[in-house]
Amino acid sequence: MGSPPDTFSGRLALQQRVLPAYRAPLFDLLAQRCAGGLSVFAGQPQADEQIASTDRLQVAQLVKARNRHLFRVGSPFYQCWQPGIVAWLETWQPQALIVEANPRYRSTPTAVRWMHARGRLVLGWGLGAPGLHSPLAGWRRQRRQKFLGRLDGVIAYSQRGAEEYRAVGFPAERVFVAPNAAAPRPVAPPPARPPAFSDRPRVLYVGRLQRRKRLDNLLHACAALPIDLQPRLQIVGDGPARPELEALAQNTYPLAEFTGPRYGVELEATFAEADLFVLPGTGGLAVQQAMSSGLPVVVAEGDGTQDDLVRPGNGWRIPADDLEALKAALLTALADVRRLRQMGAESYRIVAEEANLERMVQVFVEALVSVRTQVKS
Q1: Three-state DSSP state, 362
Q2: Consecutive sets of 10 residues in the chain, 377 residues long: mean pLDDT of each?
Q3: Predicted model pTM
Q4: Which residues of 188-211 are buried (b: 16+ CB within 10 A; e: fewer)?
Q5: To 10 degrees, the CA torsion angle through 86, 90, 96, 98?
Q6: pLDDT value at position 53?
Q7: Which residue among 153, 158, 345, 367 is least crowded, i.e. fewest CB within 10 A of its CB?
Q8: Spatial contact of 60 and 39, defined as CB atoms under 8 Å apart
Q9: Do domains 12-181+356-376 and 202-353 have the same CATH topology?
Q10: What are the angstrom distances between the C-alpha of 336 and each of 56, 197, 293, 311, 333?
């Protein structure tokens, strides 16, 4: 077998409903691996989505869409239109298009037809095809099946997502896994940590302070630990739930410290001082940064994107909203410092070798080149 391709030889277009700020480094890096460049078409989120979006890219071209939303994103009835998507393609003239693999975006099929009418590739990119259980489940499954059937290939965020695409009939040889990454490959070694806790262990959370993050469970779980294992809990970030969480901490777990947001060197130092990173609720991009700092992690299971990152060798995946499971994971983690350090070393290895922006971009390039070859043959 030859070496994997370094670049995609043509012009690439990429559609997004919105452009989260954390995706900008990915698209700029991908643009450098496309001989003809990359153009991204993306609009704005709804006001209540609390997505930190960006309106600029450094290397890739950004074309701003004017999203038209029907219903809220969380509704089974949600739809999004992106007028101007064909005009964007006509101007950019890409050899390949990557779209979000979501049938709720009603302008995307028009873009797919435009590309296929010119003999050009279209790949989807998404979380997977999980089971649907709403009253509209049958109709939504049919729409999803029809939409996926129009694509030439699909890139999943995780192995679980890839298995779901295969399970609904997508050809296995055209399904690729690009582990969902938000950070580049670490270049510095992980911080050195002592073989024993010098005082109390340090448990860290970094992210938005929202109810769905279940920081109330984290406070209660820490309070339930034996006195000698109760950690200094640092909660880094801000958000609408901060006042009620601070009040709960004052009554439940006074060892909790709310630092507010931290960035750059200050945040790196906070990771370096910690012994364990915990994400007790859904979502969260700081897991990879924690792993880059050589930290073992405890995360709540969600959409499958954590499955490839968090394994028995480097952490614990617990059921979402399960206080008892969170207590048990904390107790197991903090009771054995030697094992905790070994798990932190494994975290670092995973992000250095398997789950980083560079690897994610490499899979995108491999998928484009592979599917183009399959389609031509």
Answers
A1: helix
A2: 80 96 94 97 88 90 96 87 97 98 94 97 93 77 90 95 94 94 91 92 94 95 96 95 96 97 93 96 84 96 75 94 96 97 97 94 97 85
A3: 0.89
A4: eebbebeeebeeebbbbbbbbbbe
A5: -30
A6: 84
A7: 345
A8: yes
A9: yes
A10: 46, 10, 19, 17, 6
For position 304, what pLDDT does the model report? 62
Q: Are strands 38-43 and 12-18 parallel, antiparallel or unpaired?
A: parallel
d(CA 48, CA 73): 10
pLDDT score at 321:
86
As given in the structure block, the two tokens for residue 84 are 């101007």
Handedness of CA 263, 317, 173, 101 (dihedral sign): negative
Find out whether 49 and 72 touch, Cβ atoms under 8 Å.
Answer: no
Question: How far lies 133's CA from each of 5, 157, 158, 269, in Å?
Answer: 40, 22, 22, 44
| CATH T-level assignment (fold) for domain 202-353 | Rossmann fold (3.40.50)
- Domain 12-181+356-376 fold: Rossmann fold (3.40.50)
**Quick one: pLDDT at residue 3?**
67
**Structure confidence at residue 197 (pLDDT):** 92
pLDDT at 356: 93
Neighbours of 363 (CB within 10 A): 16
* Residue 54 contacts residue 27 (beta carbons within 8 Å): no
Helix or strand run (H / E) with residue 258: strand 256-260
Residues 6+ apart with CB under 8 A from 294: 190, 191, 193, 344, 345, 347, 348
Helix (H) / strand (E) containing 111: helix 108-117
3-state secondary structure of 127: coil
Sign of the Cα torsion 193, 196, 197, 201 reads positive
**Cα 20 to Cα 26: distance, rounded to the nearest angstrom:** 11
Instruction: Specify the pairing of strand 153-156 against strand 175-177.
Output: parallel
Q: Tell me if 258 sits within 8 A of 246, measured CB to CB.
A: yes
To 5 degrees, how large is the angle CA 113–CA 27–CA 24?
Answer: 125
pLDDT of residue 68: 95
Cα-based angle 211, 212, 215 (whole degrees, multiple of 5): 65
Instruction: Please choose, from the candidates 238, 286, 285, 233, the residue with its C-alpha nearest in 3D space to the C-alpha of residue 260.
Output: 238
